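User: Could you write out the 3D structure of this protein bound to iron/sulfur cluster? I've included everything you need below.
Assistant: Certainly. Input first, then the structure.
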Amino acid sequence: MNRSEQTRLIRQEAARLGFSHCGVSKAGFLEEEAPLLEKWLKNGMHGKMHYMETHFDKRLDPRKLVDGAKSVVSLLLNYYTDKKQEDPGAPKISMYAYGKDYHDVIKKKLKAFLDFIRAHIGEVNGRVFVDSAPVLDKAWAKKSGLGWIGKNTNLINPKAGSYFFIAELILDLELEPDAPIQDYCGTCSACIDACPTDAIIQPYVVDGSKCISYFTIELKEEIPVQVKGKFENWAFGCDICQQVCPWNSFSTPHHEREFNASDELLKMKKSDWDEITEDVFQKLFKHSAVTRTGFKGLKKNIAFLKMSSD
Ligand code: B12
Ligand code: SF4
Ligand code: SF4
């Protein structure tokens, strides 16, 4: 099988596994991103996300993660749904966390993908990644032509919007690379205008330490009083800069059964959230990404919202 046939086979398998888009880049040093990441860290925009300070070199070069790496295969998995939490007054959970934890769902697919490649192409050295490892997911997806990085710093695909996860395979296999596409944000500034905490400090730069997603998911200590009253009822993550993005009017619902929210979660009333017990939390979120905050963390966020509305 030649390089172009191998690339075609990989694209077909990506689609069969349910990934909506698949793109390829040549593995190498991320020259453009290096000074930007360095500046972002130097300015403390990672707040208390200390994991962002580690593995600086690996984060910028996949060849430091996989010996002999030649290609990065970037993959998108849609999580958009038109199902909503029914009580408009209930504390809001980000759409990406409605169903089963995406790390588990995607890892399973990626492992099957690597097995497929080894069975059909041969002894390939490679690793699979989704979110948790020191890889700049968005930068690789952009390089692979899967979208542009918008002013809200999310990767946007012109046909699918931005409600998807990004994953990748790093392989020591030479494949046919794709070309990046252009930026279609144009003169729009909807995300910057809508961000309640002014976390998008300039177009294309999010100060992570000011983002509601950071305060409600990553920050283990108390949420600073300076942002009291600004969370627009978000209790886990925040979807505002995606909700207002015109490119998300093209989003279509996902087909991933494991991402479906339970009826119980969607029907929770404001009062149910206020009274949530550890047992209910376990039942609702046992296999969900919401376990990242734990019961205590979610309670803390709900209490912060309540304090803000008093
Ligand atoms: C740390 C992190 C966060 C932090 C920091 C956010 C951030 N923008 O970095 C917090 C907790 C705030 C966060 C929030 C969210 N996250 Co997050 N997060 C990550 C993580 C782990 C690392 C991202 C990273 O490397 N940041 C470092 C900075 C330097 O990167 P950056 O912001 O992209 O910076 C680039 C640009 O700013 C640009 N740049 C810098 N300066 C300048 C100047 C100019 C002029 C220009 C043009 C560009 C430019 O260069 C930088 C380097 O490429 C990735 C997973 C991964 N391993 O990649 C997920 C990831 C980015 N998150 C994701 C998601 C879904 C979210 C949320 C939507 C979740 C939610 N609903 O609450 C929000 C969105 C908030 C937002 N608007 O960004 C997805 C994004 C999917 C997509 N479509 O893009 C990812 C890729 C996870 C995944 N694998 O699916 N996240
Ligand atoms: S996720 Fe929310 S707080 Fe964070 S940048 Fe977007 S709108 Fe602002
Ligand atoms: S809301 Fe507008 S400026 Fe922001 S990412 Fe979407 S298109 Fe770009």
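The longest helix spans residues 102-120.
User: Perfect, thank you.
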